[in-house]
Write a structure and sequence with these properties.
Blueprint: H1 3-27, H2 34-41, H3 45-52, H4 55-74, H5 84-95, H6 99-113, H7 125-142, H8 152-173, H9 175-193
Helix pairs in contact: 1-2, 1-4, 1-6, 4-6, 4-7, 5-9, 6-8, 7-8, 8-9
Length: about 200
């Protein structure tokens, strides 16, 4: 296959994932058809199945790509002169208002509901999120910014719990309301972790 053919195939795959992510998020897994996704992506249904093999595989690909985009957003370097952990917290807070989080939350819920049909071990986004948060916390502890009596892995689990709460509140009240409700929780979590000026722990 020529380089042009590979690029064209990659572009089609990307369009299918973008369409799947948007339509699944809006209409749900069972309310979405592969024909609808293919039409939105500007290709045929057989082309969709050529790239992904099944509707479930497309869901998992969309979830994986959304998770990777979320991790990339959180892992952006800090601006010059800004403490890396402060920049990380700001990105985590702003993620609550980023459509990526709402989409990832819904896709993850659909995948969990299909756990008997799909292999959830293929979705490594949760592990990557754990590692990213734990690494950021450990680095901040080494710089003396955060308390050292707290496990970075435990902080990572708490951060992931906030994303699960987001999915719950978003289902009830919508993404914007969930973001407004949980933004102070992000601040509270990381305020509790900071070194006290009176008691350097």
């Amino acid at each position: 296959m020529s380089g042009t053919g590979r690029r064209s195939g990659d572009e089609t795959r990307d369009r299918l994932i973008d369409s799947a992510r948007a339509i699944f998020s809006r209409r749900g897994y069972h309310g979405t058809t592969t024909a609808e996704i293919a039409a939105s992506a500007g290709c045929s249904e057989p082309t969709l199945f050529k790239h992904f093999g099944s509707k479930q595989a497309l869901l998992m690909a969309a979830l994986h790509e959304t998770g990777a985009s979320t991790i990339a957003f959180l892992d952006e370097p800090a601006p010059p002169g800004v403490d890396p952990f402060e920049a990380f917290v700001e990105r985590a807070r702003s993620l609550l208002f980023n459509p990526l989080l709402g989409q990832m939350s819904r896709l993850r819920n659909f995948a969990l509901a299909l756990s008997d049909e799909v292999d959830l071990t293929e979705f490594t986004g949760v592990t990557a999120l754990y590692e990213l948060v734990a690494t950021a916390v450990a680095a901040a502890q080494d710089r003396g910014v955060l308390r050292k009596d707290v496990s970075p892995e435990h902080v990572a689990q708490l951060a992931f719990s906030i994303s699960l709460l987001f999915a719950f509140y978003a289902t009830i009240d919508g993404d914007d309301a969930a973001a407004r409700r949980l933004s102070p929780l992000v601040d509270t979590l990381f305020t509790m972790l900071r070194v006290s000026e009176r008691n350097d722990r």
